[in-house]
Amino acid sequence: MADSQMLKFTQVDQAYPAKRTISARAEDFLEIARPFILAKAEEQSSRCSQCGVPFCQVHCPLHNHIPDWLKLTAEGRLQEAYELSNATSTMPEICGRICPQDRLCEGNCVIEQSGHGAVTIGSVEKFITDLAWEEGWVQPLRPLADRGGQSVGIIGAGPAGLTAAEYLRVKGYTVHVYDRHDRAGGLLTYGIPGFKLEKHVVMRRVQRLQEGGIHFHLGYEVGRDATLEELRERHDAVLIATGVYRARDVEVAGADADGVVPALDYLIAANRVGFGDDVPAFRNGTLDAADRDVVVIGGGDTAMDCVRTAVRQGASSVTCLYRRDRANMPGSQREVMNAEEEGVRFIWLSAPEAFVTHDGAAVAVRGRRMRLGAADASGRRMPEPEPESDFQLNGNLIIKALGFDAEDLAGDFGGARLALTRWGTVRADGATLATNLPGVFAAGDIVRGASLVVWAVREGRDVAQSMHKWLASQQAALLQAA
């Protein structure tokens, strides 16, 4: 017999947390959605069908126990719901905010397929974890007995590195995290705007790791402050979790003009300003969209972050060009809807032909209409230009948001010895994430290429287990030899 608290999807309509008004949210960088109230979280959780094959769980990279913690939430057992959510994820409230649920758990919800509207999984995940912080249910790290002084060095304080650091510290290892930035968090801190992820949410996670005994070395760049070999000598194992930060370029005339900037430079500046930092390139107007005609090239989530940031900075106009149509864009459809609500104009099936300049500065974009042709090897239809379809629009701040590639690991990490792929990412074993160098592992975007935060968390979890097994085997061999 079905539980009386569940299967209410035929009686209760789908409801997401209410958004702040468009005029209000365009004035600041606070998150746009109001939090669920308790009654609403319980009500929406009760819509779960508790299906025999939970496709939401199957399609979550972390394989979170979603139906189980939805049931606990519907029953008002909120601390248990949080603990079950936390059992598979080191940062559920972050994933609840920034995961593209419409492509993952919610997009594969059984009642979504039946036309009743998906359970609002991400909003419930955010609610129960934020409540856990408020109520003191989030426990400090409690390391096991010391692992004989074995230490781990982690290069990169993004989601993969932080996740691995947490799991390894709990197992009793001494953990040192090295990052080039002055704050930990990677793209969570400097790449994702506050209207999607307010920064105190990231900083409290970092503080918990610091209080748990994890050592952070910030403003520390491998290749400048230490070589990979020096870190290998310093630690019993090393994890490379640097992510990919090199912006893909637009190969058109005028691409090197003033006013043409990489997306990450623009977003980092905006986030630093949000922290209260003095950012000269923002102060002098180079990376400030105020009173400018902004054109963003690209169709992923980074492009959506840029257009919505430009709105909040007071741009005169904001336009996004994407070479495929809306149905084939890689970014979240919810983010596109949010951007449209906030006044962003989208020109689908379009690509830049050149950036028009005056005295060395960009003043306009000359574009061309595209159409979708035959599918490529990945199965996606390739865009091709429409003849005689050129157009021009004003643009004196042009932001390139075409994705990211790996930086020069060969130069920074001694790539002659560290095996790399032809894309410049680290070559790692598919099962263990071990590299060709003994005791050196890699995880996250530096292995996968630019991907989702939830996949970085998953690989951070997986690589921590692989590193633990390897370190334990090394210690056992030393004891046996003694």
TrEMBL record:
* Dihydroprymidine dehydrogenase domain boundaries: 26-136
UniProt keyword annotations, A-Z: 4Fe-4S, Iron, Iron-sulfur, Metal-binding, Oxidoreductase
Q: A GO molecular-function term, please?
A: metal ion binding
Transmembrane stretches in the record are none
Q: Which domain of life is it from?
A: Bacteria
Query: Where in the numbering of this chain does the FAD/NAD(P)-binding domain appear?
Result: 152-460
Give the matching InterPro entries. DPD_II, FAD/NAD-bd_sf, FAD/NAD-binding_dom, GltD-like, Helical_ferredxn
Q: Which Pfam families match?
A: Fer4_20, Pyr_redox_2
Q: Which Gene3D superfamilies match?
A: Alpha-helical ferredoxin (1.10.1060.10), FAD/NAD(P)-binding domain (3.50.50.60)
Q: What is this protein called?
A: NAD(P)-dependent oxidoreductase
